[in-house]
Input
Amino acid sequence: MQLNGGQALIKALEMEGVEVIFGLPGGAILPVYDPIIDSPIRHILVRHEQGAGHMAEGYAHVTGKPGVAMVTSGPGATNIVTPLANAFMDSVPMVCITGQVPSAAIGSDAFQEADITGITQSVTKHNFLVTSAQDIPRVIREAFHIATTGRPGPVLVDIPKDMVDPNHPNSAMEWYWPTDAEVAAGLPGYKPTVTGHPRKIKEAAELILAAERPVIYAGGGILKARAAESLRELAELLDLPVVTTLMARGAFPDDHRLCLGMPGMHGNYTAIMSMQESDLLIALGSRFDDRVTGRQADFAPLAKVIHADIDPAELGKVRTPDVPIVGDCDKIITELVAAVRALLDGGAARPDLTSWWSTLSGWQERYPLAYEPQQEGEGLKPQAIIEALCDAAPEDCIVASGVGQHQMWASQFWKFRHPYTWVNSGGLGTMGFSVPAAIGAKVGHPERMVWAIDGDGCFQMTAQELVTAAAERIPVKIAILNNAYLGMVRQWQEMFYDERYSEVYLSPDLPDYVKWAEAMGCVAFRVEHPDDVAAVIEKANAIDDRPVVVEFRTDVAEKVFPMVPAGQSNSDVRVAPFQVRPAGDEAGEAQQ
Amino acid sequence: MSTVRHHTLSVLVENRAGVLARVVNLFSRRAYNIYSLAVAPTDDERFSRITIVVDVESAPLEQIVKQLNKLINVVKITELDPRAAVERELLLATVNASVAERPQVAELTRIFEGKIVAVSNEALTVSLEGHPNKIDDFEDLLRPFGIVQLQRTGRVALPKLDREPTRLTPVSSTGTRAS
Output
């Protein structure tokens, strides 16, 4: 069958099972937009290419399928670099197709030319520059294979215009669809290790049974491997406590008796200290990120480490594991459960964790996540708003967040009961992530409620995508926690820069968020009094035909606690000032 | 150069446009140092071999190898232990040599079994192919004459035939071997 390259591209995407493309056309990609009209694939027209990238990420986070974005050359392509970097850091499967100037013009500084494969080399898992229309089906298959297998990640495919332009002879191609074997043969250097080494798994099982203070350190890899069920089986088998990193919120239910919640810079006291005092860290799909470890030399000083990850380069990158296991987390955990069972059946003693759990419960009781009630004259408590949103939402509600204080409060105070209900930017920390990510999530799961919890600073970065949401009838809900500041930066300036506030004030009224949201086709509310919070949330939840924006006027001075100041040891975690016990108290280990 | 700080990696890559850039970019982005680098297609035109001498004080060798392995176009990486590899390098140097000094430079070149490739009234251009240590010595001995220009190729290496090619061996005490 003779096709042109543009038709072949769209057909290849259909063959890959793509349901939706987030994109924005332009000169170089223009010929590809013609066959889209006749394709069953839904195209969502974004207002800025960054939005397309984050939507594809949000879609991928909640569905597990690769998100697809398509943009034009030059500025279209450079505008999507941030989402690619974000997806690379958070291992999000994504395929990005960029138009490129005609092959004869490459290198000539042509109009809207940018060396996007060069630019994105270090922020993609791989990228391709198509040099023949005949290669398009093979390259697309390879791109999806690379994006979705091993450690997932973004793959970019750059296609010169002449390869897809039906009026150009270079676009002629004979359709084919490569077999799995042909894809493997085309990628001689790509063979991810999936199955963990049996000897290492046995060693891990023995270490677990010998540990007195074990902690499962569950990372985003649990979700990527769809290993939430097996994780739960492992934890319940021996009553092992579980911490879930920012990327793993929801991978283990927050209301489970074994769940300690989030560790790290703004984790809760028990999760942080459990790792500091642990004698065995069972790191599953986590990467010892600096936001988790604090000062690395002081991190979990007493612990042996089992580290399982599909990316061999993560093992030993930060912390030398005692037992490294390369492979797919779900397979490894399943094998680990079997190995532990075999040892128990063989007469090995079950570890007695009674004393460890009593230590953990003591910390939980003494230092719960908490905040002080709102005082007269103060703004709303952001934590209370998140609790109210969570209480009013169905259990399977999806929450997306931007980056900053609101993100930490959302992670702390939302109760995650199911995997794939939390969408956020962990590694790169991309402000403006939440609005487009929430839209992508809603497209992936139109039957579920999707809330974006956003800050006023973040909202101003990508809010224009609410026009996309309104036009495409994607009824997401946005909660803006408006404290009129770049709140996290303000918090650092207050705590570490003698309250010298430099370039962090944003104003509560400029822009007028309600008018702005309405102008973008959304229903909008403003909440200033605590008595109105529940009622407005109820109203917002009832709207299901348009996007809704609710602006909450929050307390300017509220800070995120606990906090491990950057570069310090996790053992120096600071709890909220009102939780600090006087010196000499047995709880004096928590410092102000 | 000391052989303690430097390790030679023989990296088999797909012979495609841009692959060298990916390898070099990786070193730059992860703050690893390249000491020398040589690249050319192999007998199988689908592949090229890059011989990279890395400075392992900038990062544990094992982490460099693992990150390189993540590049899709990298097919195979072998660390070449100097004791189990043949290593060669080529040097071209133009040195000041008046008519009076010319015999000394010529003699030095002859001792090292190098070649004189060009002669003028004030200078000589010499070439030497050999083990990198030998090239180092030659370069040191040429220096007093005054080196006008010098170019070395960087080393290329292959495993010795009389032994099994060494497998990837972590050299850093902080690294761990992946299973």
Notes: The longest strand of chain A covers residues 94-100. Residues 493 and 499 of chain A are 5 Å apart (CA to CA). The longest helix of chain A spans residues 329-345. The radius of gyration of chain A is 25 Å.
